[in-house]
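This follows on from our talk about sequence and fold. Please put the record directly below this note.
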Amino acid sequence: MNKKNIAIAMSGLTVLASAAPVFAAVGTPSKEYITVQKDYKDTLKKIKAGIVSGAITDVKVTYDKDKVVSEVDYKTTATTLSAKKEAADQLSNLVDSKLDNLGDGDLVTFTIAYNAAETIHTEEEIVALKAKLEDTIVAKPATETAAGVVVADSTNTKAADRPIYLKDLFDFAKDTDGAGFKLTVTPKSDISAIDAYKYADNTKGTWATAKAFSAVSPSTAVVVGTGTVYDAKSSFKFDAKGSNATVSTMVVDTLDDAATVDVKVINAKETTIDIDSSTSTSAEDLAKKYVFDEEELDKIYEELTTDDGYGNKVQLVNGRYQVALYPEGKRLETKG
């Protein structure tokens, strides 16, 4: 799809967007996501996963714009992991038949309240993270030309028989955390078990000049639990510039994203238009039949007319520009 041609076509859509009366126009909330019927199972799967994780705290289901069939406050009614899983299955059972048999013009809206601060970690997640961190290597055995772990060889040093792991410097404890689980990381109060190991630039130095290992102790233990996630990039930094070879403690990121969004599943026919082709269906024909959000069209047009010609709205696929448009409603056909 040529960028210039599609930009011209988008300009035509913008002009025609307010050229005729409409029916079945869908109101646009502050945040709205639209899914076509053929993709509803993937959408429903993601909603269920959000309920189980605790991030989705409330879901209202509406059929055909105004028929509310269910609203559940999962934060207060599903306070255990098993209850969250059961609630997610109940939602699936409620809407699956409706979504599978959407008629022309039918609509199912999920009004979803989510709060990332409520996200829990399953036991499987915490067990896997604990095992991964415990076995993370801090320093490998040194060689004649590479820095690493050494042991005493009289007054000199030689390569150690093993690496130093995070579990040599920190305690990792799994525990329950509300409906989920948490991992608490604490620097060991006693690391005498690795007194026989030090860090050196190579194996050619003396034992006296090699550096002992230590963990940088925070004022409190660090916890990965509800509403927090492990920050791999910032955690457990190794530093051998000082008098000791130190390792910083774990760092976590706090999840605080929260909003209410509409996820709409529609029975829509997908039409692909190649502006360069001689197909009988053109962008102008669509604009005469359907109404598109003018602000959305403006954003797409702005991306098309930038130097790159693509961005969040427009994708560059195999050297061709591609956009996806969802109409707000169908135009009335009038005689005259």
Notes: The chain has two domains: 3-119+256-331, 123-254. The mean pLDDT is 83. The two ends are 35 Å apart (CA to CA). Residues 123-254 form one domain.
